[in-house]
Amino acid sequence: MDLVVMWAAILAVGVVMYVVLDGFDLGVGIVFPFQKSRDNRDRMMSSIAPVWDGNETWLVLGGVIILAIFPRAYSAILPAVYLPIFAMLLGFILRGVAFEFRHRSPGGEHIWRRVFALGSTLAAFSQGVVLGHFIGGFSFEAGVFEGGPWSWLHPFNLFTGLSLVVGYGMLGSCWLVMKTEGELRAWSRSMALRFSAFVLVAMSVISLLTPYVDPEIARCWFTWPEMLWLMPVPLLTAVAFIGLWRGLLKDNSWQPFLCGVVIFLLGFLGLAISLWPYAVPRVMTIWEAASSPASQQLLIWGALFSIPAILGYTGYTYWVFRGPVKDHDGYGQD
After folding, report:
1. SS3 for 84-132, per residue?
2. Residue 281: per-residue pLDDT
3. Burial 240-261 (b: 16+ CB within 10 A, else e)
């Protein structure tokens, strides 16, 4: 078995788990300021309180894998995205502090409400900027990044950042449809419909722009017969959007969130098809970026223990806190 491919698959699973799980709780923070009722905002926070910090475990796992298994990619990419990564971490800090201080600061709820929304939006936007920069590629000379600290400040990257914000907003709204009842659920349905329309537009624009950003992607998707084999990806994405809207209009509790997850999975699959087998697009393959076989073999034992453990406690947490949030379940209440 090719250990490099196996580690790439493990990394892909970790990234997908992070985007889906932390994506919806970041999305709750993104839609948070649009809700006017404090009681409803309490229920929104209650819906993610048991899981939000655990969801970020997948981000840590992905970072460790990149550093330990693909160190050349780590050292090549990080200088290009220092500022967006710093902004993401700042967003996490603001969000975590606001999560607790909102209920412990008498009279300051309106301040921490805005900080919570700002931190969630900043983290999501920064991740989208990094993604856009990764798709667009990096400037290297003799294997060293030659761009400046502001090389990420490109219209395509900024648009990708905004697109991920609305994508997480859609996912968070669908999560609230599944986890809340009554007035808040009806409000969440309307927010999910609005955000999903923006997501459809954003995905369409990015799909059209990406081949111009990277001609190799154009050759991958628009040459015969490859385009015939890849056609199911956009078709299934369209089906997922239809399923999401039907679920919202019929007030189904779980279907919108499930379809939202499928939309993200198909988007990730399209990205993986476009960039395979590069760890640094058009510069370094996963084999060129990988650490020594001895290191990969040693670390696989840690993965065999840690990944089932993470899956186990994640699944147990979601099982224990399954079901909708009740009126008396506001976060911070006795």
Report:
1. HHHHHHHHHHHHHHHHHHCCCCCCCHHHHHHHHHHHHHHHHHHHHHHHH
2. 82
3. bbebbbebbeeebeebbbbbbb
Return the pLDDT at 150: 83
Tell me: the pLDDT tens digits for 308-333?
A: 998 998 899 888 888 888 755 544 44
Structure tokens at 86: 């710093």
Chain segment 73-120, per-residue pLDDT in tens: 888 888 888 899 999 999 999 988 888 887 777 677 788 888 999 999
Tell me how far apart the alpha carbons of residues 231 and 325 are, in angstroms, rounded to a whole number: 40
Q: Is 114 exposed, middle or buried (0-12, 13-18, 19+ CB in 10 A)?
A: middle
User: What is the Cα–Cα distance from 221 to 270, expressed in whole angstroms?
Assistant: 10
- How long, in residues, is the chain? 334
Distance CA(110)–CA(77), nearest Å, equals: 38
Q: How many helices (H) and strands (E) does the chain have?
A: 15, 4
